Amino acid sequence: MRIGVDATCCANTRGYGRFARELLRALVVEGSGDEFVCFVDDRAAGQFDLPAPNVRLVRVAQSVAPTEAASADGSRSLRDMWRLMRAVAREPLDVFFFPTVYTYFPVPPSLPAVVTVHDAIADRFPALTLPSARARLFWRLKVRMALAQSPIVLTVSDYAARDVSRTLGVAPDRLRVAVEAAAPVYRPSESAEAIASVASRAGVADGKRWFIYVGGFNPHKHVDLLVRAHAELARDSTDPPLLLLVGDATSDPFHGARAQIHAAIAACGTESLVRWTGFLSDEDLRHLLSGAVALVLASECEGFGLPAVEAAACGTPVIATTESPLPELLKGAGFFVAPRDVTALVAAMRRLDTDRDARDGMARCAKVRAAALSWPRAARSTLAALREAT
After folding, report:
1. Fewest CB within a 10 Å sphere: which of 1, 84, 220, 317?
2. What distance in Å separates the CA atoms of residue 210 and residue 230, rounded to the nearest whole number?
3. What domains sit in the chain, N to C, each tagged with a CATH number?
4. Which helix (H) or strand (E) covers residue 15, if one does?
5. How far apart are CA 183 and CA 166, in angstroms?
6. For residue 109, what is the enclosing H or E element?
7. Packing angle of the helix pair 192-201, 282-291 (nearest 10 deg)
8. At residue 252, does pLDDT exceed 70?
9. pLDDT tier at 32, thresholds 50, 70, 90
10. Among 272, 352, 337, which residue's Cα sits nearest to residue 305?
11. Given its phi and psi angles, is residue 181 left (phi above 0), alpha (psi -120 to 50 degrees) or beta?
């Protein structure tokens, strides 16, 4: 097949950008007999690193990078989308693949498409994800256009498939699942010295323990509730653990809740126990994950929850939301708590902070569970969906 790919989303630094990059790396190997025509803007082209004989880049000028224009309160210009559509129309393609609906643009009606809808969070919780009525209108229109143009819809977990079907009305027989995995870089640190060095740069003194959150600072992630749970844990401890918040806290284009998080820290009086690390490289992050007591992902909902799987691949237990596929994917690798249940969150954090045997057992299980997931398997599922769509 000649497969067109919206690779503009590869420039995103969040989960859907990771999904696009890792999946494409696996796709060009698993689909070695296929040709992948990847459409990129200047920002994505500068970060595109996929040297393979069956990959060709088509650079399309855009006034604003799609990963920026498709932000929580942004919108794509008609001229930019027309340029992409025209570029696609000039190529003799068999099928077109969107790794995420976020950067969807219309393609010629005669060209079958497969769009990836990672979750139904924006549709279930618009007030937590889209900051204005205008943003919600544009989102609904975009998703409906994408679904109308795609005979097959891809998503990232069975949980997300059920949610997408129930919330967006997509018939189950149109949905296919490509389960995500940790990138190869995520593995247990081989060096206590490396862990200590990265931790020191993150503001962790020698001998201190830490919990870690990785991701965006958006309302539905409930990081403010994590701050309150951590403060309650700290009040009961003579040697309180730190809380590390890892992610882009300044330029993330999605709907943010940074003010609420800062307010929660101030109200709890835990400024000395919380560290904002900013964005970290994968290599630095895997050392911090390897040394953490646990990763905490207490969101309202997750279509997948990739940071938890990355932590598990590093041999780190997780505390994650029950509204996700993680209780099934990482069974035995941590504790799973209902959204907004701060009492259960505190209890889980306390158990992992004080019970070394329980933590070690969950850490061993975490590595086994994460190793069962793979990007090549996700790529094979995606290729099957693309062939089916034609």
Report:
1. 1
2. 10
3. 2-181+374-389 (3.40.50.2000), 192-371 (3.40.50.2000)
4. helix 15-30
5. 30
6. none
7. 110
8. no
9. very high
10. 337
11. beta
